[in-house]
Amino acid sequence: MIQFIKKFWHWFKSPSKIGIGIVIILSAIGGILFWGGFNAGLEHTNTEAFCSSCHMNDVVPEYRMSPHYSNRSGVKANCADCHLPHEFFPKWKRKIVASREVFAHLTGKVDTKEKFEAHRLEMAQREWERMKANDSQECRNCHNFEDMDFTKQKTVAAKMHNLAEQQGKTCIDCHKGIAHSLPHMGNVPSSFTPKSEKEE
């Protein structure tokens, strides 16, 4: 055994070129496999199936009734399209923050429909603030004032979008509740009060 350790230590102190090459190749393969597996796992957390594993009894049914899930054009926005930035670093930041939300579910804070409803307003406000702070970037990945043809919109919608563009408004200022039921607003400041789709 001592002889083996001495041989290994001698090799370790002065490895051959073949040995160095093998270590580099194995490290590269290990790195690729780790990154591929990690990325696959990360992408799985972006799927509707993953989100539904916790939200099947609260927000998933209302999302499936929304135009983001089913509409005449067949274009669908899934959970990650609206709740996760597409850019690398903002996506990671959001994933880290979202781990707190997963923890809340696992520890029983919002693990039932009743508990979820009790916290819906605070969760909605947090998401509205996030979207307002990033100028509704996730919405703008698909909807952008520059790409809108106001002449093909309903008169009221064209007027409101034109006004919003002039006033520097962002999507979430008017479109709260577009994919999910609104929480009971109670004594919420007017800056958080959404307009209904009918008012627009």
Automatic annotation (TrEMBL):
How does the cofactor attach, per the note? Answer: Binds 4 heme groups per subunit.
Q: Which family does it belong to?
A: Belongs to the NapC/NirT/NrfH family.
Cell location: Cell membrane
What cofactor does its activity depend on? heme
State where a menaquinol binds.
82
Q: Which residues bind heme 1?
A: 51, 54, 101
Q: Name one GO cellular component term.
A: plasma membrane
UniProt protein name: Cytochrome c-type protein
Residues the entry annotates as binding heme 2: 79, 83, 180
Q: So where does heme 4 get bound?
A: 139, 171, 174-175
Name the keywords, alphabetized. Answer: Cell membrane, Electron transport, Heme, Iron, Membrane, Metal-binding, Transmembrane, Transmembrane helix, Transport
Q: Which GO terms describe its biological process?
A: anaerobic respiration; denitrification pathway
Q: Which residues bind heme 3?
A: 142-143
Q: Per UniProt, what is the membrane topology?
A: Single-pass membrane protein
Which residue ranges does the record assign to the NapC/NirT cytochrome c N-terminal domain?
16-185
Q: What's the PTM story here? A: Binds 4 heme groups per subunit.
Q: Which InterPro entries is this protein grouped with? A: Cytochrome_c-type_ET, Multihaem_cyt_sf, NapC/NirT/NrfH, NapC/NirT_cyt_c_N, NapC/NirT_cytc_sf, NO3Rdtase_cyt_c_NapC/NirT
- Which Pfam family would be a valid example here? Cytochrom_NNT
Q: Name one GO molecular function term.
A: electron transfer activity
